[in-house]
Design goal:
elongated; 3-stranded mixed sheet; alpha+beta; YefM-like fold; single chain
Length: 88
């Protein structure tokens, strides 16, 4: 975990960007010794957002199963998709 002050961010922006990108991890920015913000490379942010989206979908699917929604075996779904694509 990298922790830098807001003054360091202001004075050494390019260095912090390079460090964060090289290590692919967030830099925690503080002001007056208190945490204020997280500085994160865009690639890491997008990966995190994709992971959260997937987890949300998995949670919905799990809840649907618990609520008694019907489930289908993979081979049945694959066969149905093959039939649909054969018609096109």
């Amino acid at each position: 975990m990298l922790i830098k002050s807001s003054t360091t961010l202001r004075n050494e922006y390019d260095k912090i960007v390079g460090l964060s990108k090289a290590q692919q991890e967030p830099v925690y920015i503080t002001r007056n010794g208190e945490g204020e913000m997280v500085f994160l490379p865009i690639e890491a942010y997008e990966r995190r957002e994709a992971e959260l989206t997937l987890l949300e979908k998995l949670l919905v699917a799990e809840q649907n199963c618990l609520d008694g929604a019907p489930t289908y075996p993979l081979d049945a779904v694959a066969a149905e998709l093959e039939d649909i694509y054969a018609e096109v």
